[in-house]
Write a structure and sequence with these properties.
215 residues; three-stranded antiparallel sheet; six-stranded mixed sheet; globular; 9 strands; 2 domains; alpha/beta; Rossmann fold
């Protein structure tokens, strides 16, 4: 997939992305400061927003896309199992609800009301669609926020497993959560791509590349 041009204008901000290749079956880390344009780019990729200037990407129309934003309101009056049933019912899938509960490490919480869950457990529930079916392109905005270390490890293993059949774009402010799974980083700054970096899995060198300084 090649991004020829994406342009979107707000009153006080201009996003302009050009000539970036995203290879299939890779995990791409999208990094940058707050306000750099990461969320806008993910919203445009997912179709949640329409670019008001240009959206020219080779081989994009046929993509089956999943976008999980960083903040999602879920139905607090449902139990965990009821919520998963609700999502499962309207998805074409052979995956069982029990399998999804197991993937989320929430089997023992299936009868618990969502309003009684911790913030981290609620965050897990927002990931339900990822375990229901396969997608060509998965976009995850801050997927590791609030989740405990054990499940971060499990989620990373799952992402590395599914990249054989999908392409994954992950945004995170915490470089340490990405450096062991991403194949490449895209650094966005003030609405444009500052650099594209092949990940050598070394946190120190990635920090130097991304922050232009040594720690």
């Amino acid at each position: 997939m090649v991004i020829n041009k994406i342009e979107h204008n707000y009153e006080n901000f201009h996003l302009s992305i050009e000539n970036i290749e995203i290879k299939e079956n890779t995990i791409i880390g999208l990094v940058g400061e707050n306000g750099a344009g990461k969320s806008t780019l993910m919203n445009l990729f997912s179709g949640y927003m329409k670019a008001n200037e240009a959206f020219q990407i080779d081989d994009w129309q046929s993509k089956d896309i999943l976008f999980i934003p960083s903040e999602i309101d879920i139905y607090e009056y449902l139990t965990v199992e009821e919520f998963i049933f609700f999502v499962h019912k309207y998805s074409k899938t052979d995956t069982s609800i029990n399998d999804i509960l197991e993937q989320l490490d929430l089997t023992d919480k299936k009868d618990t009301l969502i309003e009684e869950l911790s913030q981290g457990m609620r965050k897990k529930l927002t990931l339900v669609p990822m375990f229901i079916k396969k997608y060509d392109f998965v976009i995850l905005d801050e997927p590791f926020n609030s989740i405990d270390m054990n499940y971060i490890y499990k989620l990373k293993k799952y992402l590395c497993l599914i990249k054989s059949s999908t392409t994954i774009l992950i945004s995170s402010h915490i470089l340490d959560t990405l450096v062991d799974i991403c194949d490449k980083f895209i650094l966005i700054e003030k609405g444009s791509i500052k650099k594209s970096i092949v990940n050598d899995r070394n946190i120190a060198s990635m920090e130097r590349e991304i922050f232009d300084r040594s720690i």
